[in-house]
Amino acid sequence: MENLALIDSFSEFKDDKQIDRVTLMAILEDVFRNALKKKYGSDDNFDIIVNPDKGDLEIWRNRIVVANGEVEDPNEEISLNEARKIEPDFEIGEDVSEEVKLIDLGRRSILALRQNLISKIHEHDNTIIYKQFKDLEGEIYTAEVHHIRHRAVILLDDDGNEIILPKEKQIPSDFFRKGDNVRGIIESVDLKGNKPTIIMSRAANIFLEKLFEQEIPEVFDGLITVKKVVRIPGEKAKVAVDSYDDRIDPVGACVGMKGSRIHGIVRELGNENIDVINYTSNLTLYITRALSPAKVTSVKIDDEKKRAEVILRPEEVSKAIGRGGHNIRLAGQLTGYEIDVLREGAEEDVELSEFSDEIEGWIIEEFSKIGLDTAKSVLEHDINDLVKRTDLEEETIRDVINILKEEFEE
């Protein structure tokens, strides 16, 4: 196989991988030089002439003519008799340039060279893909479901690039079929063994933030700023928004008439319940808004401990806590303060922690998870409701209620 024929045999890579001819030639030269080093021990005295326009490549070996029988390094020296076979008028001390054909390298070297060339082109292609997707980190991307595995969904984009959507980065309600188009955020891109690993996420907070940018023109244009996003994927989210233009209502603009603007985002996220609230630097007001839809009576803030004690009417407590404690947990994450909920008129109430001698700590923790930290807050709830909302057995809950009732009967 001649040099030109080898180059032409790789035109498929140039076309499939969109590698330009100049880059292909540079890779070819590098591969040929490695082959020359293995064959001759050094490539220092070789000239490789690349012609990108013609797609051709020539290899010339340069040697010095020495007297017959005095050749010490056959790679860099040539005897007078051998030199005169090339040109009859060569003299001792002159330079001889001789073209090297692929056949001179040997069949095994040609096969190794071909494999090395394939490897180098793939490596170049992977580097390009890595750089391309590294620039897309934190941005929304769409790809098609190619294969569904137990722990991940494998996606392919229009260029055939593989993107992984792990199970833990999906929304719990996500259900995909082969051929479905999936939107998510490019969360991370890493090179593992020269192959780029591209991870997509639909559960990341930034995915919701970018959906706001994509779906709400005022956010895209910078008229409205998304200050912070917190989520329990597929369940509930809180988004704090602000505008420096007093004429713009940031919450109204994001939600739209009858929820028209935010409806598409909610649907994309598997009907995730999204609360959009006005951001404010007034911490008391911010915490009050964060606990929406509950109506807060008063807020007491401990900046040192980063805690907030919130007083509500009894009928507002369950709204503040939310199903599964989601509302109060997200309000705490949004504001950066741990929020304790107290009922109005609960001065005679007793903290559950005071019963640690009679009630095991893990049981108290189960009640705390759903926002019930005091005796009265537990007693106000129906037993069946407590069984549904905690991981406790009915018998355990009845024992706790009996202990708490004794406290107030005394």
UniProtKB/TrEMBL annotation:
Pfam families referenced in this protein's UniProt entry, alphabetically: KH_NusA_1st (PF13184), KH_NusA_2nd (PF26594), NusA_N (PF08529)
Main subcellular localisation: cytoplasm
An example Gene Ontology CC term for this record: cytosol
GO molecular function: DNA-binding transcription factor activity; RNA binding
Cross-referenced InterPro entries: KH_dom, KH_dom-like_a/b, KH_NusA_2nd, KH_sf_prok-type, NA-bd_OB-fold, NusA_N_sf, TF_NusA, TF_NusA_bacterial
Domain K Homology: 233-306, 307-388
Listed SMART domains: KH
GO process annotations (BP): DNA-templated transcription termination; transcription antitermination
Function: Participates in both transcription termination and antitermination.
The protein's assembly and partners: Monomer. Binds directly to the core enzyme of the DNA-dependent RNA polymerase and to nascent RNA.
Record protein name field: Transcription termination/antitermination protein NusA
Gene field: nusA
